[in-house]
């Protein structure tokens, strides 16, 4: 968390972008979602951080208050439907309503599939997938058009942002558990956008971050890769910053994203598309020209031409 503020950059968005909004951010005590909370707060939102570790939440909230951000925190485990309901009630008690839910709480670690116990697989599914569902379900009455603190039945509904991953686009070594969990999260993003958009006015979107520096995710998942090798797999040749994800979240949560629903935005510097360079540029250009020249010569000598 300490690194997050240091690496942050100036926002290109107006300071009032989220003025008057109230956001609940799971996993907001540290890492990516701490910066999401911070940027939401710096852009006018009141924020509530939810997580399992009271000391981490306390420290995070104190640090945000120093930046004049209106912030509260609530201890809870997204795996518990009761905790989810309690957290949403706390948000409404604290700030009168809920406009934005960011589902950032997640669990992951590297493990070959054959080394995972059933409980290990289930644990990650429970945190990522069931936790996301629990939070969406608990927030639904407040997020829906006409929910508590909203302006009557004609008002806008709220926004859900699910933090996902790119692991399951194709497949990722040693992360079968998290890949399955995040594939289900993306599916939920689409289903809720279909079901909760029309009658309730709720927008549901996702963000799939690539490798983000100074996060628990990088400590855990990048442990066997040198920074130099890691960068070779990122077409934009830099690590992500928590700020990159926070800017995407601001965009999706704000009016700028008001026609985006069901989509998961990849913010990864092109990482998931990365492939080793097939041939050097010069070689491919020369070879391609040579092939064209030969085929033109063959075509010219073939009087009948191709059928
Ligand atoms: N390899 C294989 N299995 C592992 C493991 C690893 N590295 N780490 C945990 N497990 C297994 C445990 O052995 C246990 O299975 P078992 O009961 O069959 O032995 C199961 O996973 C649950 O572990 P436990 O520590 O009891 O769960 P928890 O709820 O306390 O913690 C985790 C959940 C494991 C996901 C933990 O890493 C966590 O809390 N992570 C949150 C932060 C995080 O991971 N962020 C991800 C950023 S990408």
Overview of the molecule:
- The structure is a single chain.
- With 307 residues, this protein is α/β, with parallel strands linked by helices.
- 45% of the residues lie in helices and 12% in strands.
- It has helices at residues 2-7, 31-42, 54-65, 81-95, 118-143, 176-196, 216-221, 227-232, 242-253, 281-301, and strands spanning 22-26, 46-51, 71-75, 100-103, 159-163, 203-209, 264-267.
- The protein has a 7-stranded parallel β-sheet, sandwiched between helices.
- Strand 2 (46-51), helix 3 and strand 3 form a beta-alpha-beta unit.
- The longest helix is centred in the middle third of the chain and has 26 residues, at 118-143.
- It is globular and about 85 Å long.
- It binds coenzyme A.
- The site of coenzyme A has 16 residues, from helix 5 and helix 7.
Please write out the topology.
Layout: H1 2-7, E1 22-26, H2 31-42, E2 46-51, H3 54-65, E3 71-75, H4 81-95, E4 100-103, H5 118-143, E5 159-163, H6 176-196, E6 203-209, H7 216-221, H8 227-232, H9 242-253, E7 264-267, H10 281-301
Helix pairs in contact: 2-9, 4-5, 5-6
This protein binds coenzyme A.
